[in-house]
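#struct-pred
JK: can someone run the complex with zinc ion? inputs below
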Amino acid sequence: MQYITTIGLEVHVQLKTQSKMFCSCPVGFGDEPNKNTCPTCLGLPGALPVLNRGAIERTVLAGIMLGCETPPISKWDRKNYFYPDMPKNYQISQFDLPLCLGGGVLLYDHCYPKDAQKDIEESGKEIGLTRIHLEEDVAKSTHSSNGTSIDFNRAGTPLMEIVSEPEITSPEEAFAYLNSLRQILIYGDLSDADMEKGQMRCDVNVSVRPDSQEELGVKIELKNMNSVSAVRRALHYEISRQIRVVKEGGELVQSTRRWDDDIGETQQMRIKEDAHDYRYFPDPDLLPVKTEDVIKKMRLQVPELPHQKAKRFVRDFSVSEYDASVLSSDRDLALYFEETANESEAKKKVANWVINNVLAVLNERDLKVAQCPVSPSKLALIIKMVESGKISNNQAKEIFAVLFDNPDKDPDAIITELGFEPADSNLIESIVEEVVSNNPEKVKEIQEGNDKLINWLTGQVMKASKGKANPKIIGDLLRKKIL
Amino acid sequence: MSTSLASLTIRQLQNELKTGHISPVDIVNDVIESINNKDSEVGAYLSINAEEAIKSAKDADTSKPLGGIPISIKDLINVEGQPCSCGSKILKDSYVSTYDATVIKKLKEAGAIPLGRVNMDEFAMGSSTENSGIQITKNPWDLKRIPGGSSGGSAASVANDTAIASLGSDTGGSIRQPSSFCGTVGLKPSYGRVSRYGLVAFASSLDQIGPVTKTSEDAAIILNAIAGKDPLDSTSLDSDVPNYLESMNGEIKGLRIGMPKEYFTDGINPEVLSSIHKGIETLRELGAEIIDISLPHTEFAVSTYYIIATAEASANLARFDAVRYGNRVSDPTNIIEHYRKSRAQGFGEEVKRRIILGTYVLSSGYNDAYYVKAQKVRTLIRNDFTKAFEKVDVIVSPTAPTPAFKIGEMCNDPLQMYLADIFTIAANLAGICGISTPCGFATEDADNRLPIGLQILGPALQESTILKVSDAFEKATDWHKQRP
Ligand SMILES: [Zn+2]
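RT: done, structure tokens with the ligand placed:
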């Protein structure tokens, strides 16, 4: 019997605003505990909340980027429950009139786990969203043997909750969903959305059912996954656990389970009967928000989305679809590529260079694209030198490496410094001759029309010249000799 | 000086200050002396910041609108550095304000000096100040009786001449009803006219801060200082603040005054009723036109109020969990027990009753039947007033159906106690303004006269109109000048 998995995600994202959701305290992390607090975010008697327009604007922008609808009026509700990290013992949230409804997240191929990218079940799948609402974050509790300490610096940070429809069908899709969503949030400069830093948090609802069964299985909520890959791991574990229980004739109960990443298993926290009655009601301290003007304003600020960028790269720069999706996966990377490509004739080469060389060096040194010291115009210049046959690809890599540490240097000066001379044309010619005579069958095939083999022969010449020769020139020589 | 400066009005003190015969320090000293002499039997004050007040008086700038005038503060309005116990054991001696409420900031900017914390029903829940978790406050007119509530300390301190004026708060009548019982003037501004920032919330959609004073003129002086939009209170109204003194010319000729038939029914104490009728007669003699009106949904006001107010309170009071401040039990075994025991020990019976009621009306399955329905009825009550104010400029009624009752008389009958606010509650539900001014005495008790208050209600943001009427009434009568 086959089992169908149904997954829905509730993602909380800390918004990148200057100040907190309902007071003017700065949003900051790593400060001395309880430094960024005031009567409002400490829940002192008599203090009142005031809306942060910036947080509302960012949420509306997220909604526009994700294709949601924003109702004309959005309101604020109190969600009542007692917990020491909640200073008022109610959270200001949004119940029935959230800022965004509907919309969806497009799953990008490159956002799937690397090992699963080859067998993506449904490329281009979109996961529908139920809603996005805005609320305030709680404080941070630290438990120790002496008791629990609470740091209210985080209390009141604007938190966007993005709720998906139960349309995700595998741990890999959940992984891709989170990464795709994260990419969009970063594109909009809405959040850094780093799960390991707690800027993005995720609760997962998962159920299984035999494929013969129409109605959904018993919904179980998973908590405490601190990275995107932990979500994948937790789901793999939980899905097999649920299938095992069902197969063995056992019964699943609606419940919440906690993922333990060290042990690699989920453990029951509470069952449905213990669920809170949050007693939502409209917060009388806050007026409903009219959204029309916010929507108008934010429409003008919508950035180009990753998939839109990728499409444009394919169209305007003739880059392959895969390369385009890699290049657009990071806003800064896309920008770097685009600036380089705009100064270069060989757009496709630029794409190769950025993906294969620039990223490699950056990864080696653990740097972000924005920190790349080599300017796009210098990179364009190096690529131009390769194209014109002035230097070989390997030499270009060496020049790039030097530039990386001395970004102000002139590439021409580096060429002289490193003693790169154009390879001896006589020497190359003799190598070409040698390679041609050593490979008569290949030559024959080329003459019969298998043009691709020229590249193979070029590679042989390159090898023999120890990378000094320019592949373009070798190719021309080979063609002259053979054809 | 023959009479204590503490017995004067703000206006009288301002005149005295102008002559240069007295200084703000004299005023503050007289008030402190008066408190020391007379408050022990009334018990209006919970604490007095004497030293600090004298220091402020020394620096006071008498050119300011309230320069050098001390004002007693109901114990639920935050004043930086002072306790703010809300009349509750859960906060007593364990919470000191770290900030000034906006009204306090504004009063200080106007030169006023907050002097003393006055008693109240715990978290403003009550109509007699008997629900204070800290002490009993007695009515200065008859020490066997309650001063009304919840701003009982405010009204008692002003009536007893132990305060020049006071700031109270009114959620369902908590300024007007004790003013009626103590013979003071009590003004509840329209919802949003005065910032609530720093007022410890009972029911956020109903609460308003307002003055308790000896005259309507003084009420106008204080309202001038505290009214206006506050960026820290989203529900405060962005509407120009007129000079409320300007409309007070004693001229109410042609003004249309409505008498709602639903407010003149059986069950009103006969002496109260006759005083109100005489008061209305006085207004007619001043040239006002008296018009019969109807507020058809009046009978639902009390039950609507107790659903909305308790629902909001159940959330508002959740923060008193003894985690960050407040008195906590010493030996809980876990966090739930900490909450349960600390709150059980810290809150009084009435507060617990209302938290439970509010929690109930919001709970899943009951929310629609109670809370949602109450909001609909609230709209009907608001519409009643909107329609009525198309026909009349103000509405008059008794402030309370009875004079002050005896201490302990209603304690075991919360429902009867709730009816003490029957004429005041609708104004809070509708968000309109109202004032109570003295209009007579009940003499049922041979030993003591018991004040009676006339309530004047006006449309939202029409404080100048009701102040004009109450001021004209005071100019034509001397009820407000009487002292115990
Ligand atoms: Zn704050």
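RT: quick notes.
The two ends of chain A are 61 Å apart (CA to CA).
The pocket of zinc ion is lined by residues A 20, 23, 25, 37-38, 40-41, 156 (CB under 6 Å).
JK: thanks, will look after standup
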